[in-house]
Protein backbone atom coordinates (compact mmCIF):
# COMPACT_ATOMS: atom_id res chain seq x y z
CA UNK A 1 0.00 0.00 0.00
CA UNK A 2 2.93 2.33 0.68
CA UNK A 3 4.21 1.71 -2.84
CA UNK A 4 0.80 2.34 -4.39
CA UNK A 5 0.31 5.49 -2.30
CA UNK A 6 3.72 6.87 -3.33
CA UNK A 7 2.95 6.00 -6.95
CA UNK A 8 -0.29 8.01 -6.62
CA UNK A 9 1.74 10.99 -5.39
CA UNK A 10 4.10 10.71 -8.37
CA UNK A 11 1.21 10.38 -10.82
CA UNK A 12 -1.12 13.11 -9.62
CA UNK A 13 1.50 15.82 -9.22
CA UNK A 14 1.56 15.85 -13.03
CA UNK A 15 -2.12 16.85 -13.13
CA UNK A 16 -1.44 20.10 -11.26
CA UNK A 17 2.04 20.56 -12.81
CA UNK A 18 0.61 21.61 -16.18
CA UNK A 19 -1.66 24.42 -14.87
CA UNK A 20 1.32 25.84 -12.97
CA UNK A 21 3.26 26.03 -16.27
CA UNK A 22 0.73 28.21 -18.07
CA UNK A 23 2.12 31.66 -17.13
CA UNK A 24 5.61 30.57 -18.23
CA UNK A 25 4.34 29.10 -21.50
CA UNK A 26 2.37 32.27 -22.27
CA UNK A 27 5.50 34.37 -21.77
CA UNK A 28 7.96 32.05 -23.55
CA UNK A 29 5.83 30.65 -26.39
CA UNK A 30 3.56 33.63 -26.99
CA UNK A 31 0.39 31.65 -26.31
CA UNK A 32 -2.93 33.32 -25.73
CA UNK A 33 -4.82 32.59 -22.51
CA UNK A 34 -7.27 30.48 -24.51
CA UNK A 35 -4.50 28.45 -26.15
CA UNK A 36 -2.83 27.90 -22.78
CA UNK A 37 -6.12 26.75 -21.30
CA UNK A 38 -6.53 24.15 -24.03
CA UNK A 39 -3.43 22.35 -22.73
CA UNK A 40 -5.14 21.70 -19.41
CA UNK A 41 -8.26 20.66 -21.31
CA UNK A 42 -6.28 18.24 -23.51
CA UNK A 43 -4.73 16.55 -20.48
CA UNK A 44 -8.07 16.38 -18.65
CA UNK A 45 -10.05 15.00 -21.60
CA UNK A 46 -7.48 12.30 -22.39
CA UNK A 47 -7.47 11.27 -18.74
CA UNK A 48 -11.20 11.29 -18.05
CA UNK A 49 -12.50 9.74 -21.26
CA UNK A 50 -10.03 6.86 -21.34
CA UNK A 51 -10.11 5.86 -17.67
CA UNK A 52 -13.42 3.89 -17.73
CA UNK A 53 -12.35 2.03 -20.90
CA UNK A 54 -8.96 1.15 -19.42
CA UNK A 55 -10.68 0.10 -16.19
CA UNK A 56 -12.96 -2.23 -18.15
CA UNK A 57 -9.93 -3.72 -19.90
CA UNK A 58 -8.10 -4.17 -16.58
CA UNK A 59 -11.11 -6.02 -15.16
CA UNK A 60 -10.76 -8.63 -17.89
CA UNK A 61 -7.03 -9.12 -17.46
CA UNK A 62 -4.80 -8.24 -14.53
CA UNK A 63 -2.08 -5.86 -15.72
CA UNK A 64 -0.11 -4.40 -12.79
CA UNK A 65 2.63 -3.33 -15.21
CA UNK A 66 0.10 -0.81 -16.53
CA UNK A 67 0.68 1.18 -13.33
CA UNK A 68 4.35 1.67 -14.25
CA UNK A 69 3.58 2.47 -17.90
CA UNK A 70 0.96 5.00 -16.85
CA UNK A 71 3.45 6.68 -14.54
CA UNK A 72 6.06 6.90 -17.31
CA UNK A 73 3.62 8.51 -19.74
CA UNK A 74 2.07 10.85 -17.16
CA UNK A 75 5.45 12.32 -16.20
CA UNK A 76 7.02 11.93 -19.64
CA UNK A 77 4.28 13.98 -21.28
CA UNK A 78 4.73 16.80 -18.77
CA UNK A 79 8.51 16.64 -19.25
CA UNK A 80 8.02 17.24 -22.99
CA UNK A 81 5.76 20.27 -22.48
CA UNK A 82 8.69 22.51 -21.55
CA UNK A 83 10.71 21.65 -24.66
CA UNK A 84 7.87 21.45 -27.21
CA UNK A 85 8.35 24.43 -29.60
CA UNK A 86 4.90 24.56 -31.23
CA UNK A 87 1.30 24.51 -30.05
CA UNK A 88 0.46 21.15 -31.74
CA UNK A 89 3.45 19.55 -30.00
CA UNK A 90 2.35 21.10 -26.71
CA UNK A 91 -1.09 19.55 -27.20
CA UNK A 92 0.49 16.21 -28.01
CA UNK A 93 2.61 16.34 -24.86
CA UNK A 94 -0.41 17.17 -22.73
CA UNK A 95 -2.38 14.32 -24.35
CA UNK A 96 0.43 11.86 -23.61
CA UNK A 97 0.37 12.91 -19.97
CA UNK A 98 -3.41 12.53 -19.81
CA UNK A 99 -3.23 9.06 -21.36
CA UNK A 100 -0.69 8.08 -18.72
CA UNK A 101 -2.94 9.31 -15.92
CA UNK A 102 -5.81 7.30 -17.46
CA UNK A 103 -3.67 4.15 -17.54
CA UNK A 104 -2.52 4.55 -13.95
CA UNK A 105 -5.68 5.12 -11.93
CA UNK A 106 -7.98 2.14 -12.64
CA UNK A 107 -5.33 -0.56 -12.21
CA UNK A 108 -3.63 1.16 -9.26
CA UNK A 109 -6.95 1.63 -7.46
CA UNK A 110 -7.94 -1.98 -8.19
CA UNK A 111 -4.76 -3.30 -6.59
CA UNK A 112 -5.14 -0.85 -3.69
CA UNK A 113 -8.53 -2.48 -3.11
CA UNK A 114 -6.92 -5.94 -3.05
CA UNK A 115 -4.04 -4.88 -0.79
CA UNK A 116 -6.35 -3.06 1.65
CA UNK A 117 -7.60 -6.35 3.09
CA UNK A 118 -10.91 -6.52 4.97
CA UNK A 119 -10.95 -2.90 6.17
CA UNK A 120 -11.19 -1.41 2.71
CA UNK A 121 -11.69 2.29 3.49
CA UNK A 122 -8.99 2.25 6.17
CA UNK A 123 -6.49 0.81 3.71
CA UNK A 124 -7.66 2.83 0.72
CA UNK A 125 -7.18 6.12 2.61
CA UNK A 126 -3.42 5.87 2.05
CA UNK A 127 -3.88 5.50 -1.69
CA UNK A 128 -6.43 8.34 -1.82
CA UNK A 129 -4.26 10.60 0.34
CA UNK A 130 -1.36 10.00 -2.05
CA UNK A 131 -3.37 11.59 -4.85
CA UNK A 132 -4.22 14.59 -2.67
CA UNK A 133 -0.58 15.08 -1.74
CA UNK A 134 0.51 14.81 -5.36
CA UNK A 135 -2.06 17.35 -6.50
CA UNK A 136 -0.97 19.74 -3.75
CA UNK A 137 2.80 19.50 -4.39
CA UNK A 138 2.61 19.63 -8.20
CA UNK A 139 2.63 23.45 -8.48
CA UNK A 140 5.50 23.74 -5.97
CA UNK A 141 7.46 21.11 -7.90
CA UNK A 142 6.86 23.00 -11.16
CA UNK A 143 7.87 26.34 -9.66
CA UNK A 144 11.09 24.95 -8.19
CA UNK A 145 12.06 23.14 -11.41
CA UNK A 146 11.47 26.18 -13.61
CA UNK A 147 13.26 28.50 -11.17
CA UNK A 148 16.31 26.23 -11.36
CA UNK A 149 16.44 25.39 -15.08
CA UNK A 150 13.88 27.50 -16.92
CA UNK A 151 11.21 25.83 -19.05
CA UNK A 152 13.55 22.90 -19.69
CA UNK A 153 13.13 22.19 -15.98
CA UNK A 154 9.96 20.30 -16.89
CA UNK A 155 12.29 17.41 -17.74
CA UNK A 156 12.57 16.94 -13.97
CA UNK A 157 8.99 15.64 -14.03
CA UNK A 158 10.29 12.43 -15.57
CA UNK A 159 12.54 11.62 -12.62
CA UNK A 160 10.02 10.65 -9.87
CA UNK A 161 7.77 8.66 -12.22
CA UNK A 162 10.70 6.67 -13.62
CA UNK A 163 12.03 5.87 -10.14
CA UNK A 164 8.64 4.87 -8.74
CA UNK A 165 7.68 3.09 -11.97
CA UNK A 166 10.82 0.97 -11.72
CA UNK A 167 9.89 0.07 -8.14
CA UNK A 168 6.41 -0.97 -9.30
CA UNK A 169 7.87 -3.20 -12.03
CA UNK A 170 10.15 -4.78 -9.46
CA UNK A 171 7.10 -5.57 -7.28
CA UNK A 172 4.80 -6.80 -10.08
CA UNK A 173 5.17 -10.46 -9.12
CA UNK A 174 4.32 -9.67 -5.49
CA UNK A 175 1.37 -7.50 -6.49
CA UNK A 176 -0.10 -10.41 -8.43
CA UNK A 177 -0.25 -12.47 -5.22
CA UNK A 178 -2.96 -10.11 -3.88
CA UNK A 179 -5.38 -10.83 -6.73
CA UNK A 180 -8.29 -12.82 -5.19
CA UNK A 181 -9.43 -16.15 -6.60
CA UNK A 182 -12.75 -14.83 -7.90
CA UNK A 183 -10.87 -12.32 -10.08
CA UNK A 184 -8.58 -14.93 -11.64
CA UNK A 185 -11.20 -17.65 -12.08
CA UNK A 186 -13.97 -15.31 -13.30
CA UNK A 187 -16.33 -16.76 -10.70
CA UNK A 188 -17.70 -13.35 -9.76
CA UNK A 189 -18.27 -11.87 -6.34
CA UNK A 190 -21.84 -10.81 -5.83
CA UNK A 191 -24.08 -8.83 -8.18
CA UNK A 192 -23.18 -5.49 -9.69
CA UNK A 193 -25.58 -2.80 -8.44
CA UNK A 194 -25.67 -0.38 -11.36
CA UNK A 195 -28.49 1.72 -9.92
CA UNK A 196 -26.60 2.41 -6.70
CA UNK A 197 -23.42 3.05 -8.68
CA UNK A 198 -25.30 5.57 -10.82
CA UNK A 199 -26.45 7.41 -7.70
CA UNK A 200 -22.90 7.36 -6.35
CA UNK A 201 -21.62 8.76 -9.65
CA UNK A 202 -24.07 11.66 -9.28
CA UNK A 203 -22.66 12.25 -5.81
CA UNK A 204 -19.08 12.27 -7.14
CA UNK A 205 -19.94 14.66 -10.00
CA UNK A 206 -21.73 17.15 -7.75
CA UNK A 207 -19.05 16.87 -5.06
CA UNK A 208 -16.41 17.55 -7.72
CA UNK A 209 -18.29 20.66 -8.83
CA UNK A 210 -18.03 21.94 -5.26
CA UNK A 211 -14.39 20.86 -4.95
CA UNK A 212 -13.28 22.71 -8.08
CA UNK A 213 -15.26 25.71 -6.88
CA UNK A 214 -13.31 25.74 -3.62
CA UNK A 215 -9.94 25.20 -5.31
CA UNK A 216 -10.49 27.92 -7.92
CA UNK A 217 -12.19 30.56 -5.78
CA UNK A 218 -10.83 30.26 -2.24
CA UNK A 219 -7.73 32.30 -3.23
CA UNK A 220 -9.96 34.89 -4.93
CA UNK A 221 -12.19 35.05 -1.84
CA UNK A 222 -9.15 35.75 0.31
CA UNK A 223 -7.95 38.51 -2.04
CA UNK A 224 -11.22 40.18 -3.05
CA UNK A 225 -13.34 39.73 0.09
CA UNK A 226 -10.76 39.47 2.88
CA UNK A 227 -8.43 42.01 1.20
CA UNK A 228 -5.28 39.93 1.72
CA UNK A 229 -2.31 39.64 -0.69
CA UNK A 230 -2.39 37.01 -3.43
CA UNK A 231 0.39 35.07 -1.70
CA UNK A 232 -1.85 34.70 1.36
CA UNK A 233 -4.65 33.40 -0.85
CA UNK A 234 -2.36 30.75 -2.35
CA UNK A 235 -1.14 29.87 1.14
CA UNK A 236 -4.66 29.34 2.44
CA UNK A 237 -5.50 27.18 -0.57
CA UNK A 238 -2.46 25.04 0.23
CA UNK A 239 -3.66 24.84 3.83
CA UNK A 240 -7.13 23.80 2.60
CA UNK A 241 -5.55 21.00 0.53
CA UNK A 242 -3.23 19.85 3.33
CA UNK A 243 -6.11 19.59 5.78
CA UNK A 244 -7.94 17.68 3.05
CA UNK A 245 -5.14 15.09 3.13
CA UNK A 246 -5.58 14.81 6.91
CA UNK A 247 -9.31 14.44 6.39
CA UNK A 248 -8.77 11.61 3.91
CA UNK A 249 -6.55 9.76 6.39
CA UNK A 250 -9.14 10.19 9.14
CA UNK A 251 -12.20 9.43 7.00
CA UNK A 252 -11.15 5.89 6.05
CA UNK A 253 -11.31 4.34 9.54
CA UNK A 254 -14.49 6.27 10.30
CA UNK A 255 -16.11 4.85 7.15
CA UNK A 256 -15.15 1.31 8.16
CA UNK A 257 -16.58 1.83 11.64
CA UNK A 258 -19.77 3.78 10.93
CA UNK A 259 -20.44 3.13 7.25
CA UNK A 260 -19.54 4.61 3.89
CA UNK A 261 -22.84 6.38 3.34
CA UNK A 262 -22.68 7.97 6.79
CA UNK A 263 -19.30 9.51 5.98
CA UNK A 264 -20.47 10.80 2.59
CA UNK A 265 -23.55 12.47 4.06
CA UNK A 266 -21.72 13.91 7.08
CA UNK A 267 -18.72 15.11 5.07
CA UNK A 268 -20.67 17.11 2.50
CA UNK A 269 -23.38 18.19 4.95
CA UNK A 270 -20.93 19.62 7.48
CA UNK A 271 -18.93 21.25 4.67
CA UNK A 272 -22.11 23.02 3.52
CA UNK A 273 -22.68 24.38 7.03
CA UNK A 274 -19.05 25.48 7.36
CA UNK A 275 -19.22 27.27 4.01
CA UNK A 276 -22.26 29.27 5.12
CA UNK A 277 -20.54 30.12 8.42
CA UNK A 278 -17.41 31.20 6.55
CA UNK A 279 -19.22 33.67 4.32
CA UNK A 280 -21.53 34.93 7.08
CA UNK A 281 -18.74 35.64 9.58
CA UNK A 282 -15.88 36.79 7.33
CA UNK A 283 -17.65 38.75 4.61
CA UNK A 284 -16.56 41.97 6.28
CA UNK A 285 -12.90 41.04 5.94
CA UNK A 286 -11.97 38.90 8.97
CA UNK A 287 -8.87 36.98 7.81
CA UNK A 288 -7.93 35.49 11.25
CA UNK A 289 -11.38 33.88 11.54
CA UNK A 290 -11.29 32.60 7.96
CA UNK A 291 -8.13 30.56 8.58
CA UNK A 292 -9.58 27.97 11.00
CA UNK A 293 -12.89 27.86 9.13
CA UNK A 294 -11.15 27.03 5.84
CA UNK A 295 -9.00 24.42 7.58
CA UNK A 296 -12.06 22.69 9.07
CA UNK A 297 -13.93 22.88 5.76
CA UNK A 298 -11.03 21.27 3.88
CA UNK A 299 -10.75 18.53 6.50
CA UNK A 300 -14.41 17.48 6.57
CA UNK A 301 -15.08 17.95 2.86
CA UNK A 302 -12.23 15.78 1.56
CA UNK A 303 -12.75 13.14 4.30
CA UNK A 304 -15.22 11.32 2.03
CA UNK A 305 -12.73 10.48 -0.73
CA UNK A 306 -11.56 7.00 0.27
CA UNK A 307 -15.14 6.10 1.26
CA UNK A 308 -16.64 6.85 -2.15
CA UNK A 309 -13.81 5.10 -4.01
CA UNK A 310 -14.34 1.92 -1.99
CA UNK A 311 -18.13 2.22 -2.18
CA UNK A 312 -17.97 2.40 -5.98
CA UNK A 313 -15.85 -0.76 -6.02
CA UNK A 314 -18.32 -2.49 -3.69
CA UNK A 315 -21.28 -1.57 -5.90
CA UNK A 316 -19.48 -3.11 -8.91
CA UNK A 317 -17.55 -6.01 -7.30
CA UNK A 318 -17.02 -7.68 -10.70
CA UNK A 319 -15.84 -4.46 -12.37
CA UNK A 320 -13.54 -2.85 -9.82
CA UNK A 321 -11.33 -1.31 -12.51
CA UNK A 322 -14.30 0.26 -14.28
CA UNK A 323 -15.69 1.58 -10.99
CA UNK A 324 -12.31 3.13 -10.17
CA UNK A 325 -12.03 4.67 -13.62
CA UNK A 326 -15.40 6.38 -13.24
CA UNK A 327 -15.06 7.59 -9.64
CA UNK A 328 -11.42 8.68 -10.01
CA UNK A 329 -11.60 9.97 -13.58
CA UNK A 330 -14.75 10.55 -15.57
CA UNK A 331 -17.07 11.75 -12.80
CA UNK A 332 -14.41 14.03 -11.33
CA UNK A 333 -13.67 15.61 -14.72
CA UNK A 334 -17.37 16.18 -15.37
CA UNK A 335 -17.45 18.09 -12.10
CA UNK A 336 -14.50 20.19 -13.23
CA UNK A 337 -16.38 21.16 -16.39
CA UNK A 338 -18.76 23.14 -14.13
CA UNK A 339 -15.96 25.56 -13.15
CA UNK A 340 -16.85 28.14 -15.88
CA UNK A 341 -20.38 28.35 -14.45
CA UNK A 342 -18.89 29.11 -11.04
CA UNK A 343 -16.88 31.86 -12.71
CA UNK A 344 -20.02 33.34 -14.22
CA UNK A 345 -21.62 33.41 -10.77
CA UNK A 346 -18.58 35.28 -9.46
CA UNK A 347 -18.70 37.77 -12.35
CA UNK A 348 -22.37 38.53 -11.75
CA UNK A 349 -22.82 38.33 -7.98
CA UNK A 350 -19.30 38.29 -6.53
CA UNK A 351 -16.90 35.67 -5.20
CA UNK A 352 -18.89 35.24 -1.98
CA UNK A 353 -21.83 34.01 -4.08
CA UNK A 354 -19.56 31.44 -5.72
CA UNK A 355 -18.41 30.13 -2.33
CA UNK A 356 -22.06 29.87 -1.26
CA UNK A 357 -22.83 28.08 -4.54
CA UNK A 358 -20.15 25.53 -3.65
CA UNK A 359 -21.90 25.08 -0.31
CA UNK A 360 -25.23 24.56 -2.08
CA UNK A 361 -23.59 21.87 -4.22
CA UNK A 362 -22.45 20.20 -0.99
CA UNK A 363 -26.09 20.05 0.11
CA UNK A 364 -27.04 18.44 -3.22
CA UNK A 365 -24.20 15.93 -2.85
CA UNK A 366 -25.34 15.07 0.67
CA UNK A 367 -28.85 14.43 -0.67
CA UNK A 368 -27.46 12.10 -3.35
CA UNK A 369 -25.42 10.26 -0.70
CA UNK A 370 -28.50 9.91 1.50
CA UNK A 371 -30.28 8.19 -1.41
CA UNK A 372 -27.65 5.44 -1.50
CA UNK A 373 -28.53 2.02 -0.05
CA UNK A 374 -27.52 1.37 3.55
CA UNK A 375 -24.15 -0.23 4.18
CA UNK A 376 -24.03 -4.00 4.49
CA UNK A 377 -21.86 -4.01 7.57
CA UNK A 378 -21.28 -7.75 7.65
CA UNK A 379 -19.78 -7.67 4.17
CA UNK A 380 -17.87 -4.48 4.83
CA UNK A 381 -15.75 -5.67 7.72
CA UNK A 382 -15.00 -9.30 8.35
CA UNK A 383 -12.29 -9.66 10.95
CA UNK A 384 -11.71 -12.61 13.26
CA UNK A 385 -9.61 -12.07 16.38
CA UNK A 386 -6.18 -13.64 16.01
CA UNK A 387 -6.72 -14.49 12.33
CA UNK A 388 -5.04 -12.19 9.82
CA UNK A 389 -6.71 -12.04 6.43
CA UNK A 390 -5.10 -13.52 3.34
CA UNK A 391 -4.02 -10.17 1.95
CA UNK A 392 -2.29 -9.17 5.18
CA UNK A 393 -0.54 -12.52 5.37
CA UNK A 394 0.73 -12.11 1.82
UniProtKB/TrEMBL annotation:
UniProt keyword Transmembrane helix, yes or no: yes
UniProt KW keywords: Membrane, Transmembrane, Transmembrane helix
GO molecular function annotation: transmembrane transporter activity
SUPFAM superfamilies: MFS general substrate transporter
Transmembrane domains' residue ranges: 65-83, 89-105, 126-149, 155-173, 194-223, 235-255, 262-283, 289-310, 322-343, 349-374
Subcellular location: Cell membrane
One cellular component (GO) term of this entry: plasma membrane
Pfam families: MFS_1
Membrane topology: Multi-pass membrane protein
Location (main, coarse): membrane
Residues in Major facilitator superfamily (MFS) profile domain copies: 1-377
Name this polypeptide is given: MFS transporter
Top-level taxonomy: Bacteria, Bacillati, Vulcanimicrobiota, Vulcanimicrobiia, Vulcanimicrobiales
Amino acid sequence: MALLGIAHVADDCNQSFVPALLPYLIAARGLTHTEAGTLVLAQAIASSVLQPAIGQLADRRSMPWLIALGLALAGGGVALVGIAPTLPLLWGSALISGIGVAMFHPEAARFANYVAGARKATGMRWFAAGGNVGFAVGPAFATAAIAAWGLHGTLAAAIPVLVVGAAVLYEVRRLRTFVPAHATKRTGQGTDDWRAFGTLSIFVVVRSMAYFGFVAFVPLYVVEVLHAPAAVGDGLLTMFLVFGVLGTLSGGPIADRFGRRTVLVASTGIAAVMTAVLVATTHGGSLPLAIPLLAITGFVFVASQSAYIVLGQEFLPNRIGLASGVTLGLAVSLGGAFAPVMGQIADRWGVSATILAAGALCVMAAAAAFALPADRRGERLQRKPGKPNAESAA
